[in-house]
């Protein structure tokens, strides 16, 4: 009797294992059925490289200024060194370093243009000394760019930029800057990005 009961239990267990195996196999096959996929393609926007120029206004300068020499006498360099030392002692200049025939000057209570005028007055050698700095400028609200000699008027959403001037001018002065941009077919600036360069 015990042997018969044991056989029945083994038979039921084998049937249960078979059912579990078949169910798992069916589930595995259903998961491998390839579903439908979809892709979307965004057409690249056609752009045209265009250039032009505008007059910009100098609003301010960086506090870092560079004084470079070309064919200057030792007397001129000594005069500039003495001037910078005096300005530093009076707190007008924070610091200055001389390397590669130029001074890097950290300004405090003086603008780049004011420093230039002080140097010119002291050295009496403005032709061979350049005072340069990065100027913050404001562009007009619109500009005309040219693509194959065709004028295209654009609206400038961003108008504040910076350019390096080898020879600084007074704040409020007007300078001419070049503009380059990629334009779309409808005449708008691609990604609202333009490149500015100074035209001395």
General description of the model:
- With 200 residues, the chain is α+β, with helices and mostly antiparallel strands.
- It has 2 domains: 1-33; 47-198, no CATH class.
- It is built from 3 helices and 9 strands.
- A hairpin with a 2-residue loop joins strand 5 (142-147) and strand 6 (150-155).
- Helix 2 (74-89) packs across helix 3 (112-123).
- The longest helix is centred in the N-terminal third of the chain and has 30 residues, at 2-31.
- It is flat, with a radius of gyration of 37 Å.
Q: Based on DSSP secondary structure assignment, what is the total number of beta strands?
A: 9
| Helix-strand topology string | HEHEEHEEEEEE
Radius of gyration using CA atoms only: 37 Å
Q: Which percent band covers the strand fraction?
A: 35-45%
Query: What is the 3D form?
Result: flat
* SS summary, helix count: 3
> What number of structural domains do the residues give?
2
């Amino acid at each position: 009797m015990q042997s018969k009961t044991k056989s029945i239990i083994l038979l039921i267990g084998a049937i249960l294992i078979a059912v579990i195996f078949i169910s798992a196999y069916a589930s595995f096959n259903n998961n491998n059925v390839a579903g439908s996929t979809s892709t979307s393609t965004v057409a690249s926007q056609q752009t045209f490289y265009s250039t032009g120029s505008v007059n910009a206004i100098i609003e301010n300068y960086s506090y870092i200024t560079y004084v470079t020499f070309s064919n200057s006498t030792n007397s001129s360099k000594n005069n500039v060194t003495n001037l910078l030392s005096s300005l530093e002692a009076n707190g007008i200049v924070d610091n200055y370093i001389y390397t590669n025939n130029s001074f890097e000057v950290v300004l405090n209570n003086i603008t780049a243009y004011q420093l230039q005028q002080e140097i010119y007055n002291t050295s009496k050698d403005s032709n061979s000394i350049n005072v340069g700095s990065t100027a913050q400028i404001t562009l007009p609200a619109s500009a005309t760019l040219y693509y194959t000699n065709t004028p295209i008027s654009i609206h400038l959403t961003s108008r504040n930029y910076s350019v390096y001037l080898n020879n600084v001018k007074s704040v409020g002065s007007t300078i001419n800057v070049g503009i380059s941009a990629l334009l779309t077919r409808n005449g708008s600036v691609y990604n609202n990005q333009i490149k500015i360069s100074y035209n001395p």
